[in-house]
Amino acid sequence: MSALVSASKVLDGAATAKAIRQELREEISRLRLSHGVSPGLGVVLVGNRPDSASYVRMKTKVAEEIGVHVVDARLDESADQEAIVAAVRRLNDDPDVHGILVQLPLPAHVDESIVLGAILDDKDADGFSATNMGRLVLRGGPRPLARPCTPAGCIELLQRYNVTIAGKHAVVLGRSNIVGTPVAALLQACDATVTVCHSRTPNVEGHVKQADILVAAIGKPHYVQAGWIKPGAVVVDVGINSVDDPTAKRGYRLVGDVDLNAKDVASYITPVPGGVGPMTIAMLMSNILNLTRHALGIVDVEDAAAGRGAS
Amino acid sequence: MSALVSASKVLDGAATAKAIRQELREEISRLRLSHGVSPGLGVVLVGNRPDSASYVRMKTKVAEEIGVHVVDARLDESADQEAIVAAVRRLNDDPDVHGILVQLPLPAHVDESIVLGAILDDKDADGFSATNMGRLVLRGGPRPLARPCTPAGCIELLQRYNVTIAGKHAVVLGRSNIVGTPVAALLQACDATVTVCHSRTPNVEGHVKQADILVAAIGKPHYVQAGWIKPGAVVVDVGINSVDDPTAKRGYRLVGDVDLNAKDVASYITPVPGGVGPMTIAMLMSNILNLTRHALGIVDVEDAAAGRGAS
């Protein structure tokens, strides 16, 4: 896992993800030759949200580019919980599907935890199950079969740029199940000292000012001011916020949770877009490959996951 | 859940645990009347470590005092992993056993994670399983059937003394599966901003000095100096360390991780012994009662756990 050389301070997620996709494409090609199997990703998409449809299109495009076949399960916005769970179960039972993702958010009348809970641990492509999350958090013992993709992408990006995590003070903004909580666990597993701030934290600025590594995942455009960043800190901006911009072709642009001027203070910073976003999809594909290997009994997935990242 | 009145700064775990045991005794008595069932605790003890034997004696004494019957599985120090796992499975299959604990540490030739992994999630008295830990960490979704006892005891003690957790900065020293990691998750679930320090943290003192609530769980006698404590902070000392003391009857005494003079700086502090220790056993019994209710299908254990503590 060689480091990319970067002349600038940018943690280039687009370029890094491209390199990972190429590695995965080669590994998948070898797998097909040796075992006659191509990894399969089951995708459950409910309703017509344009953002969800766009994410699924991006994931499908990357999957097909690297040799992962996609099995779609599309349901109408009005589909009830039982119908969605039934769709998950069909993918659970499909031997050609090695990983399943349910595109979130689900419609308001559906209990997401019940739908996600229906995915077999062995096919949990997003690593969101309680068992996988518990394994992520616990020291020792079996490793998770898959790690949540955005957090794994943050860590992988730092590691490929040889950013030291051990011994650093990492401050995570946000405690969501999808980003904040698992990224804190992964940073701690890499021997960072981790502080997690959230909506009930009175003095976020005071915590951010101490961060050697800042991971912002709260979904508030430019919430973190450049003046809060400790000089030389590493900034990972997970936020992808849409803000009005009459000068943009679509009338909006995407911005992160961190003010753009932070680039003048930080030693490394992820751009938005082109930072964590592409890494997320690459790590999803890495999870699918690991789950496929696990299903084939080829290799100890624990070791594979440990080798690829931050366990 | 009324607060105890304390004239001093002491968070009196012994008195609080006594009150909880009395509550549990009454609840168990009602359960026996209504359902003809008494909660059963299966205890696996391997070898002859005096400390382990002592812990098991204490747990057994409390269990019997409140109406929990104990089913012992004692194995020789030389017992191999298969024999220990088989003992766990027998307790899994015993309908009179509602919760199982394996007294740690196990002999060095045994993989603890495999033995603990053999306990059914529904009988995981210590709340150590990956699934229970994942549920503890995740926001929303099903709650854990049991919560790790020492962390749950810390939170329960703070809550019974009406110590405000929400919005406070909590610093946890230690990241063990048994204490540090789950107590950090519980504090965060109570809306504290949490920092976890560990063996790779370069400047523990600097973090401790910022703590509104300090939980010390590193097992180093008097490691935390009184001068590190922020005036008015709440100190929960989980350490139970044996130090030589020729003046003591047994030649040693038990001390915590925090210097005794911290009591002059903190607003509240747990004594060692008599602080977190008795709370741990009380929370174990609370877990057993919840697991018994779950087995009987009486009550939503999620709600019971949420009502009793920090979910």
Automatic annotation (TrEMBL), chains A, B:
Keyword set, alphabetical order: Hydrolase, Multifunctional enzyme, NADP, One-carbon metabolism, Oxidoreductase
Pathway connected to this protein: One-carbon metabolism; tetrahydrofolate interconversion
Pfam family, one: THF_DHG_CYH
Domain Tetrahydrofolate dehydrogenase/cyclohydrolase NAD(P)-binding: from-to ranges: 148-293
Molecular-function annotations in GO: methenyltetrahydrofolate cyclohydrolase activity; methylenetetrahydrofolate dehydrogenase (NADP+) activity
Superkingdom per UniProt: Eukaryota
CDD domains, sorted: NAD_bind_m-THF_DH_Cyclohyd (cd01080)
Residue stretches making up the Tetrahydrofolate dehydrogenase/cyclohydrolase catalytic domain: 11-126
One GO cellular component term noted in the UniProt record for this chain: cytosol
InterPro entries: Aminoacid_DH-like_N_sf, NAD(P)-bd_dom_sf, THF_DH/CycHdrlase, THF_DH/CycHdrlase_cat_dom, THF_DH/CycHdrlase_CS, THF_DH/CycHdrlase_NAD-bd_dom
GO BP field: tetrahydrofolate interconversion
PANTHER family per record: C-1-TETRAHYDROFOLATE SYNTHASE, CYTOPLASMIC, C-1-TETRAHYDROFOLATE SYNTHASE, CYTOPLASMIC-RELATED
Subunit structure: Homodimer.
Listed HAMAP family: THF_DHG_CYH
Protein name: Methenyltetrahydrofolate cyclohydrolase
Organism: Chrysophaeum taylorii
Lineage, uppermost ranks: Eukaryota, Sar, Stramenopiles, Ochrophyta, Pelagophyceae
